[in-house]
Amino acid sequence: MEEIDNKLLYRLILGFFVASIFATIVHEYGHFFTAKYLGYEARVSYGSTSWTNPAYQDFFDGLTRDERIKIRTNEYFSRKQDYQAMIKNIGDEAFLITLGGPVLTIIIGTLGMLIAFLNRRRFTGGALSFKKWLIVFTALFWLREPVNYIFDLLVTVRQGSFPRRNDEAVLARYLGLDSWSISFGLAVVGLLSVWIVYRRFIPDQDKTTFLLAGLLGGLGGYISWLFLFGPIFMP
């Protein structure tokens, strides 16, 4: 087991702390930018994104009492075709907006992996520079997938069913798949990506320090943001 480099440990804990918060915010902006592109009004909070479409809301608000009754009883009314088309659009667009968060996270992580491999000859030898650590942390955006899946499994053990509200579960249900399927697939890919980063780009003498920093800084940043700093700075 390699000796812990205390100086590097403190720096990496800070790096993981900041990166976990930054990655969470960036993920939410993946939803935000997709919603804005589709014409929605959107707002990013510390751990979620909300979106509304004024045009759709106006349509709902304009439904008469008789039309609302016929919607519940599945009867015909003059605007039923428009209503059904709008409901389909809302579902399709909600899928795309939900997809935007994971896609942006995956794109950034994949870009980090690509940059790391293009510069792989520079990752040999001694300690990594700040620029190289920045590349590593960019590639570690893939870490979101296995970490989220682990948390989902813990929730499953506690409540007896796989969570239904996380992005990957929502996407899976839209596609007619089991709620856990996309989460599991991305977790496997993410775990493989993180393992490659760890084995190929982290110096042997820093591997233990890196793992300890990831555990302390990553969890610390995630928990602190969701339960302490996030509600204050991005309510």
Explain this structure to me?
The protein is mostly helical and 235 residues long. It has one domain. 72% of the residues lie in helices and 3% in strands. The chain contains nine helices and two strands. The protein has helices at 6-37, 54-61, 65-72, 80-118, 130-139, 144-159, 167-174, 181-201, 207-233, and strands at 41-44, 49-52. A two-stranded antiparallel sheet has the order 1-2. A hairpin with a 4-residue loop joins strand 1 and strand 2 (49-52). Helix 1 packs antiparallel against helix 4 (80-118), helix 1 packs across helix 9 (207-233) and helix 4 (80-118) packs antiparallel against helix 5. 31% of the residues are buried.
Model regions low in confidence, pLDDT < 50 over at least 5 residues: none
Q: Structural class of the helices, strands and pairings?
A: mainly alpha
In round numbers, the mean pLDDT is 95
- Order of adjacent strands in the largest pleated sheet: 1-2
The count of helical stretches stands at 9
How much of the sequence lies in strands comes to under 5%
Count of distinct structural domains = 1
Global outline: elongated
Over all CA atoms, what is the radius of gyration? 22 Å
Topology record:
Blueprint (H helix, E strand, L loop, with lengths): L5 H32 L3 E4 L4 E4 L1 H8 L3 H8 L7 H39 L11 H10 L4 H16 L7 H8 L6 H21 L5 H27 L2
Antiparallel strand pairs: 1-2
Key features?
9 helices; mainly alpha; elongated; 235 residues; two-stranded antiparallel sheet
